[in-house]
Specification:
alpha+beta; three-stranded mixed β-sheet; 10 helices; transmembrane
Length: 286
């Protein structure tokens, strides 16, 4: 079972907290109805940092997936979480009353690929409203997927970095402290790494880049064989900026997005059965 398959299934399984999808968060597959798929494919309307955004619910892993509880009263925690998520769902489905939030967790991946319950997830692709989400839905080799962060990233109101007070790095540092220490500049990614990490450990770092108004992106970067953490922050920061500007704003400009991400794919991007999605030899990131 792949990590993505498990992630997608757990995401669905935990939608029980919204009172509309599945009956439990057990690891065994449950029936996924057309209504479930319609909800996951439907658009959520939110405002972050004064910027209106439109994304399918299935991409908002931070709001819909369950979080671990460390409270002694887990039942009370579950009820409180259910109330918060239901309130978010109601607000986010109303374009005129878009939910205003400080931070949004997003993941771009092949939404239609799921080994545990493949048929329902295949149906989701045709029901997504925007071309960017359809482009990755059944294609893990899509240009957008290969330009964006491999895992989740955040968009956040840059006046609300305290939203990361409960987020910690691999080295145990508070992400909000790292963000507050940055001097953010337009079109420039800032990177802060853990200070006290053993030399033998991979140095995971926090990166941030301003996008527009008070909206910024926050992501995790690291040194790898083919790319330094600074280069990764620059490349993926540009990809997220293009994603916000051309994909998830009030209207979509997919050709403009596609042109940018084709230049920002990882240097050693894999080629799927359909060949290079950009239609020419894979170019290295600029």
């Amino acid at each position: 079972m792949t990590r993505r398959s498990l992630s997608s299934f757990v995401f669905l399984a935990c939608l029980v907290m919204l009172g509309a999808i599945l009956e439990s968060c057990s690891p065994s597959p449950k029936h996924v109805s057309d209504a479930d798929i319609d909800f996951l494919a439907s658009d959520a309307h939110v405002v972050v940092g004064g910027v209106p955004l439109v994304l399918p619910f299935i991409s908002l892993t931070g709001y819909v997936a369950a979080k671990p509880s460390f409270s002694l009263n887990r039942q009370q925690d579950r009820h409180a979480a259910t109330d918060r998520l239901e309130a978010f769902r109601k607000a986010a489905t109303n374009p005129q009353g878009a939910a205003k939030i400080d931070q949004l967790e997003i993941e771009v991946y092949a939404y239609g690929w799921n080994d545990l319950d493949p048929q329902p997830f295949k149906r989701i692709c045709a029901r997504l409203s925007r071309q960017w989400s359809k482009s990755v839905c059944d294609d893990p080799w899509a240009a957008l997927k290969q330009a964006m962060p491999e895992n989740r990233f955040y968009v956040v109101d840059d006046r609300k970095f305290d939203a990361f007070d409960n987020h910690f790095t691999v080295g145990g540092e508070r992400v909000s402290d790292q963000l507050h220490s940055m001097q953010l500049r337009v079109n420039e990614a800032s990177v802060v790494c853990d200070r006290n990490l053993k030399p033998s450990k991979t140095n995971f770092c926090t990166a941030a880049i301003p996008i527009k108004q008070h909206l910024a992106a926050v992501l995790t970067v690291w040194d790898s064989t083919g790319e330094t953490r600074s280069r990764q922050a620059e490349r993926e920061g540009k990809a997220i900026t293009a994603f916000v500007r051309h994909a998830i704003g009030p209207s979509e400009e997919f050709p403009a997005l596609f042109a940018v991400v084709c230049e920002l794919k990882k240097a050693k991007s894999s080629v799927g059965p359909g060949g290079n999605p950009c239609g020419s030899p894979i170019s290295k990131s600029r």
